Amino acid sequence: MESLVVPIFVLDARCRVVVWNRACERLTGVPANEVLGSSDAWRSFYKHPRPTLADLVVQGRTAELSALYDDHQRLCDDEGNLSAQSWCDMPRAGRRRYLAVDVSPIHSEDGTLVAVVETLRDMTAEKQAQIALEQLATRDGLTGLANRRCFDDTLHAEWQRALRQGQPLSLLMVDVDNFKQYNDAYGHVGGDACLQRIAGAVANEMRANDLVARYGGEEFAVILPNQALKGAAIVAERIRCRVEQLRLPNLGVGNQCVTVSIGAATVLAAPDTDPAGLIATADAALYRAKHMGRNRIGLTLDAAPAAAAGL
């Protein structure tokens, strides 16, 4: 075990470390003479007390796997042979690592547990690549907001939730006023910077369960679960004011600053309706806000649908 390039440590039946090979020293930054004979192997991996996978097997606590590890599985028919993955703090190494660990129990001839061997693999690079791919699939590259695909999936899920729970669902469509003129005056690099500033302003007004997405071009969409029209109007007004307070000059339209127009719609989901109707209603409210002079909010309660107003 000492000569293997795979990090390995072994616990005896009392959770004492009896093997801590050189590869494990390199991975954790903890020399063997500091950990051999101790019962706190966890200190090499975590800042706060938490059992290693080998500890769980020795102590018969494998029922806790789901609470402690991102992913876990049994390697064979023997329930003691387990595999799991999770982020580890690695206090001595000074860097967080994503480790895949396997454990195998060793029994005496009479079936008594003698020790548990734990092997470790550093999967940090693979995990970071996976996270990056997931972000590419759901995040807009320019603004860091949710992208159109994520918006569509979230709206469908929130629609189904609203339908089950009989709750209102609101949607804001936010469009940057006179953005073509801004691009003409500042170029695409300046336009991109403008969109990033506005994206940050919109995101700062969101609750934890709201979603703001870049819907396309200079248009953003905000999903407000369990939010009635009055609440949606308040959020919309906060967004409008926050963007106005950025004081981004738009030389393409004289001395005016960059503003946004917002269409707000609320629906009480019914079995014979779908999210497309909510999007269309919010778009219509946005068009009215633009038509009435920009830098304002258009509201629609799409229950029947009912009347709309421009504010």
From TrEMBL:
Its EC number is 2.7.7.65. Residues 78-135 form the PAC domain. SMART domains: GGDEF. It comes from the Bacteria. Residues 167-302 form the GGDEF domain. Pfam families: GGDEF, PAS_4. Gene3D superfamilies: 3.30.70.270, PAS domain (3.30.450.20). Residues 1-39 form the PAS domain. It is an enzyme of class 2 (transferase). It catalyses: 2 GTP = 3',3'-c-di-GMP + 2 diphosphate. InterPro entries: Diguanylate_Cyclase, GGDEF_dom, Nucleotide_cyclase, PAS, PAS-assoc_C, PAS-like_dom_sf, PAS_4, Rev_trsase/Diguanyl_cyclase. This is diguanylate cyclase.
